[in-house]
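Incident review: delayed structure delivery

Summary: a single-chain prediction request sat in the queue longer than the usual turnaround. Root cause was a stuck worker, restarted by the on-call engineer. No data loss occurred. The affected request and its eventual output are reproduced below so the record is complete for anyone auditing the incident later.

Affected input:
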Amino acid sequence: MKTTMRLTTTEATLCAQRIEAGQVIGAWIGSANRDEAEWSFADQFDIERDPNRHIAFGRGIHFCLGAPLARLEATIAVSAMPGRLPGSWQVPAAPLEALKSAGMLGVKNLPLIWGEEQVDR
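Output delivered after worker restart:
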């Protein structure tokens, strides 16, 4: 899993953990948005999670300039799918192979069944 390393410039306290000036710290990016203190069942995908205070697009001055476009594209794509692909998706009960990547979480392949046909994506 990808870790972003930083060198602290001042002392600080974060979640009751004291961090000294000049200390090297690492943020494990794969743990973002998976905090059990923030969400019940944080490891479970829930498209309707509310409130959903995720940090997928960053925060503050580092907020992603492309976030509104990404949200618009996702809204259009998800809205168009039922009309173009009538039926329902199913994920068969088959073992999934994890993606071997230091920078991403996911599966190598996700076999889908659309109606009666099987589609590998």
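Verification: The two ends are 23 Å apart (CA to CA).
Action items: add queue-age alerting; document worker restart procedure.
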